[in-house]
Amino acid sequence: MARTLDHRGPDGHGEWLAPSGGCGLAHTRLSIIDIDGGHQPMASHDGRYVIVFNGEIYNYRALRGELDALGHRFETKSDTEVIIEAFRAWGPECLERFRGMFAFALFDSEAGELFLARDRTGIKPLYYFPGSAGFYFASELKAILAAEGVPRRLDYQALSDFLVLGYCLAPRTFFSDVRELIPGTWLKLGHDGIVSRRYWQWERAPEDWDESTALDYTEKALVRSLEEHLVADVPIGAFLSGGIDSSLLIALLVRDLDVHLDTFNVAFSDAAFDESPHARAVAEALGTRHHQITVEGSGADLALVDQVLLQFDQPFGDSSAIPSYLISREIRKYVKVAIAGDGGDEMFGGYRYFQQADLVRLAARAPRLLIAAGLRIPARLGRVAPDHFRRGRRFLRTVAMRDHSRLVALKCYTLPEDLSGVLRPEVLRAVGDYVPSLAVKQSLMEDTGGPDLVDAQIVHALPNDYLRKVDVASSAHGLEVRVPLLGEHVLEHAQRLPNHLRYNLRTSKLLLRKLALRYLPRGVVERRKQGFSIPLDSWLGGEGRRELGAILTAPDAQVRQLVRGDHLDEVVTGFVSQQWDRTRYSRYNLYQQVYFLWGLERWLQTWDPEL
């Protein structure tokens, strides 16, 4: 099991077996803090507790001071040992004191109990299998699947999540017998079975702040979070996309905290996807040591994409995992730790979906007959302006929804009711009743809008899509990525932020833009959000598209066991020829559909699950 995780921890290996049997722990180490003394599995000084831990506790020195005052004994300088003694002192309540990113397992040999915990927003992953063959857990699915007696059965609800959203909703995984521990949760395995509790959950509690007050609080929260995220015994670099989030963090590091560092960016030959000129401008303005990784078009590198797809252990639809993988590979040549800007869009209102959600809420007040009439406009009339027709129809379908299903419609690649055109009839029967929900407040009914989508992004999309992507892509190369915009200081601040200071119908990320104007060129601050994605169609080129098309449309393609042949042929043929029905698919949605099928095919080939 441990050998499958060598890429996550290339600096050391350790194993521990309980003398009395019944528990074994293994660890692969990426040494960041207390390089000489932080080896794992780590036992407490009295041997009662043994821990394996992935992540960082940024306030470990302050906690150690508290524990020293209480008489606790330490033999290392590591944050790992602080977790052990904090658990000894405070039990599960210690989690509320930790400021950091973590997934850990702690065995209490005296009580015969195993305790698992995961950080608040799910920066670090944690999977587990509670079966008759034993209780297994790991940072990646492949480690659990390396153990004997773990079934490989397809979870059909997870398959539906993937086709609709591009990821499966925790605690589900693609393997029906393996679960994912939900962020902000702990689990205890003892003589009485399994007990699980939440110790933290996202909940907005807006304060009555004016803009000036909120702006000052935001700056203080960001600087405090950055200070904590600099704790390391190795050099730290940073991702620099050229957007507001990463640029502002680097500006605060350079100008407020006097930190000078290496920055990294990916450049694409397709100008529609290339942010490198903006990143270079920021790097020059701030005086960082900048590194640019260029990805040429028409690469036809299917083997590289296969590496990315297989690294996830289950189908994962976010194609920006490819540039994330590439830039992580490059950064690792220079540093072990990198700062990233993930979380800013969620905390501070950066997605246009939030504005769309409020527009949908306003439009839903129109007479139902008017909405229904708009939906009856035939597709042939939309061929004059197919992009406008496609967006308009999608908008009206979303407006027609009245409850939490509206959140799914705003964020999905395929509407749940359209799965009948994607999945084979027998697969639909296996799926059964499928009603995905991104609602955080289950009482959502008529008036679903932008604030509810903010909640959904933080609770569901952030851990299951964006943070999963970053963790897998970086860990593949033994790189640790830190996300200060999800530090506890920022989380606590964002929960109290009035929604009208996040975004309005004209402007996204209101507060961060105003704060960024203090540090960055106006052109960087005011340009439209671009997103971190790859032009998969042009990048593969004609040869690569044809090669991929041959894989997916082959008579023996395993994906045909699940997906309707007419859907498969339609999207693959359109992708290969670059001629498709634009009243149904945008360029992005078309290649994402193909990327989904590609990931599903490779997963079926690799794991041969029971269907």
Kindly describe this structure.
- The chain is α/β, with parallel strands linked by helices.
- The chain folds into 4 domains: 2-126 and 181-198, Aminohydrolase, N-terminal nucleophile (Ntn) domain (Glutamine Phosphoribosylpyrophosphate, subunit 1, domain 1, 4-Layer Sandwich); 211-349 and 471-526, 3-Layer(aba) Sandwich (Rossmann fold), CATH 3.40.50; 352-451, no CATH class; 537-607, no CATH class.
- The protein has 22 helices and 16 strands.
- The strands form 4 sheets. The protein has a 6-stranded antiparallel beta sheet with strand order 3-4-5-6-10-11, covered by helices on one side. Strands 14-13-12-15-16 form a 5-stranded parallel beta sheet, with helices on both faces.
- A hairpin with a 2-residue loop joins strand 10 (185-190) and strand 11.
- Helix 6 (244-255) crosses helix 18 and helix 12 packs antiparallel against helix 13 (386-399).
- The longest helix is centred in the C-terminal third of the chain and has 26 residues, at 450-475.
- The chain is globular and about 75 Å long.
- The model has no long low-confidence stretch (mean pLDDT 91).
Q: Main sheet?
A: 6 strands, antiparallel
> What's the architecture of the largest domain, going by CATH?
3-Layer(aba) Sandwich
| Average of the residue pLDDT scores | 91
- The oligomerization state is single chain
Q: State the distance separating the first and last CA atoms.
A: 25 Å
- What overall form do the CA principal axes indicate? globular
Q: Give the class from helix and strand content and strand pairing.
A: alpha/beta
CATH topology of the largest domain: Rossmann fold
Give the helix tally: 22
Total individual domains = 4
What percent strand? Answer: 5-15%
CATH superfamily of the largest domain: HUPs
- How helix-rich are the residues, as a percent range? 40-55%
| Count of distinct strands | 16
The CATH class label of the largest domain is: Alpha Beta
Radius of gyration: 24 Å
